[in-house]
Amino acid sequence: MALILGTNCGFVIEAPVGDPGGTGTTTRDGYAGAMKVVTGAGVTKITEIGWWSANYSEETNFEVGLYSHDAGNDKPNARLYVDNTNAKGTAAGWKVVTVDWDVVAETTYWLAYQIDNTSTATKIDYKTTGGLRVSFVLAATLPATWVASNENADYLNAIYAVYTSGDESVFVPYYYQKLLAG
User: Tell me, what DSSP letter sits at residue 58?
Assistant: First the structure.
């Protein structure tokens, strides 16, 4: 399977489980990366964020975060949320963090990750078409404000955020409705 926005990258209703099968991999140890995404109508919360480690590499820490959008420069702006202590493990696969981050519907954000440097480079899948924007900076941690990017491209990265929607209806059985109504 290839990277498909809304299925195994970007905002998704459920977490992907298999190899996203990007068209290539790129080394990202010691870097922070962010992918531009737009929330859909009714989206109110991110409950999980994950990224695909495409290869075996040494154990290290990784961070995930969410940034606001700098529309004038088309890059991440201020860090809104961060989870900065996560064990990457050594195997390839999805690296997942449970979060509770509020977001606003129909708003541009940047999903971000940072991987501490190791001697066996960690790689992430990407696809060179179909993306909104990706930005990378050399960083030992996710910065409070994104710095000038040394690499920008319009493609997809294997990073996702599971969301919930305020538009979802809650099923209340008839007999509970009657009980609640008195």
Answer: -
Q: How many CA atoms lie within 13 A of 161 on its CB side?
A: 32
Structural domain boundaries, residue 39: 10-181
Report yes or no on 97 lying in a domain.
yes
Number of domains into which the chain is organized = 1
Tens digit of each residue's pLDDT (9 = 90 or more) over 31-55: 888 999 999 999 999 999 999 998 8
Total-model pTM: 0.86
In a domain, 4, yes or no: no
Q: Please work out, in degrees rounded to the nearest 5, the angle formed at the alpha carbon of residue 100 by the alpha carbons of 111 and 86.
A: 65
Return d(Cα 82, Cα 75) in angstroms, integer.
17
DSSP state of 56: -
Please give the backbone phi and psi of residue 151, each rounded to the nearest 5 degrees, phi first: -155, 125
Q: Which DSSP letter does residue 169 get?
A: P
